[in-house]
Amino acid sequence: MWSHVRFDVSPEEGLAGIPDFIIAPASDIGTTFEKPVICVAEAKRENFNEGWAQAIAEMVASQRFNGDENIEIFGIVT
Questions:
Q1: Tell me, what's the pLDDT at 9?
Q2: Domain extents for the chain?
Q3: Distance (Å, rounded) from C-alpha 9 to C-alpha 49?
Q4: Of 77, 63, 50, which is closest to residue 15 (Cα–Cα)?
Q5: What are 9-67's pLDDT values in tens digits?
Q6: Is the four-CA dihedral 7, 8, 10, 15 of positive or negative sign?
Q7: Where are the alpha helices (DSSP H) in 1-78?
Q8: How far is 16 from 10, CA to CA, in rounded Å?
Q9: β-strands 74-77, 39-42: how paired?
């Protein structure tokens, strides 16, 4: 699980930012994550709808990052 790391997949499309959490395997050296990204999470105190909008954008970015539309992506908003 990765917390608050940059995830810039397609900045020109607005698919760039810092998700609250990402679930993905670590690279061999353990300093970055690799494919597949399987879950993104957003924590919003008082704006659940904004959290879902961000989570959906992060899910689209995850799908593009993975390069495989058959990998299920999960999104969580709390």
A1: 93
A2: 2-77
A3: 23
A4: 63
A5: 999 998 998 998 999 999 999 888 899 999 888 888 888 888 888 889 999 999 999 99
A6: positive
A7: 48-66
A8: 6
A9: parallel
Q: Which residue type, as a one-letter code, is found at position 22?
A: I
Among candidate residues 1, 54, 41, 56, the one with its CA nearest the CA of residue 24: 1
10 and 17 Cβ atoms separated by less than 8 Å: no
Tokens 């995850």 correspond to what residue? 62
**Which amino acid, 3?**
S
Q: Are 16 and 9 in contact (CB under 8 A)?
A: yes
Report the SS3 class of residue 15: strand
Q: What is this structure's pTM?
A: 0.85
Any idea which residue has 């679930």 for tokens?
Answer: 23
